[in-house]
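Hello forum,

I keep getting stuck at the same step: I have a sequence, I want structure tokens, and every attempt I make locally crashes halfway through. Rather than fight my setup again tonight, could one of you with a working pipeline run this one for me? It's a single chain of 410 residues.
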Amino acid sequence: MHAETTLAGPIQTQAAVYAAAWVRQLRRGRPVPKLLPEVTGALASLARELDLLADQIGRREREFERLFDLVHSVDQGVGLDDVLNRIFDWFVDIIPYHRIGCAFVSTDGAHLTAHWARSVLGEVQISAGYSQPLAGSSLGAVLARGEPRIINDLEQYLADHPDSDSTRRIVREGGRSSFTCPLIVGERPIGVLFFTSREKETYREVHQAIFRQIAAQVSIVIEKSRLYQDIVDHNRRLQEERGRLAEKAIRDPLTGALNRGAIMDRLADALRTAAGRGDMVGIVMADIDRFKSINDQCGHAAGDAALIEFTRRTAAALRDDDLIGRYGGEEFLLVLPGIGAEAVRAVAERLRRTVAATPFDLGGVMRTVTASFGVVAARADDGPAAALVAAADRALYVAKNSGRDKVVAG
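Reply #2:
Ran it on my machine without issues. Output:
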């Protein structure tokens, strides 16, 4: 007996010293080895507890790193979907999952609407916009309690709740267990994070404990990124609306062609660009023949229809860089960058044939419409834009007064 005690004493003393050194390494944030395997009794229990402590500390360090990265991403102005994608990429060693979805409570608190999902299970079955009422639902209860919910057998849950469309969709996608985590800022529920695994019995109380520890920070990060995204989306809509208004301001409201001021500005721009490249610019003045007779015989609505159809046919026959503007009345100005005298005449001739090819539908009245064209090919040093347009207009006058339905070069 005395020999055993003597033998155990050095081992226990050695183990105690080793354990102290082990804790010192852990405290300093350095790697720690496993404790001596031959130790038994109370020190063995201590070893197991210290190993669990090391694992927990390591996990908490990873949690803090992930949260710091998320908070930093919001400070950098990262949008909501980017934050959710980072959660998917970064949280896999904290909470197990093969799918994460995020849904938000509607402004009136009546519905939960899916915003985002990312999955390696299969084709996503619950995508953005999918919405369900909260009243009387299990998700409403989860939000009311503010506690994460575990369902470790989704197939059985669906069998017990056959009316659950969302569960049916997740099972169809390949999910077999789920971990539903409410997002709450202050005391206000803002939404839910859904973690889903392809395996049954994936989630444990430890995952609930982990999420409780990080829930407040994750909720705030998501809410901040959501608000930031709302601001970005609002600004984008404002920019788009300004763009639409600006575009509307330079368009003829009837035909959609550029108005006179806009087409003259574009001509001046085209001439400046051509000067830098040594190119020419084709200028075409076009006029619908006998337009007054259309108004007089068929009415002004028919005249409007003729203007709209002329614009449509002409624009469809032009290149992407070519421009058409309504110069005034039934007269149109076309700007054709990068083409010379022969090419601009050929384009005008093709447009003439396109206009006359088939009758126009003038509101139930079918009528053949023709147009006359005056063309000029100019360089920037040939004169200002107004003078070049005047030259094309003189050529148009000749075309109109020499039989119409023809092309004349100036």
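DSSP finds twelve helices and 13 strands in the chain. If your local run keeps crashing, start a new thread with the error log.
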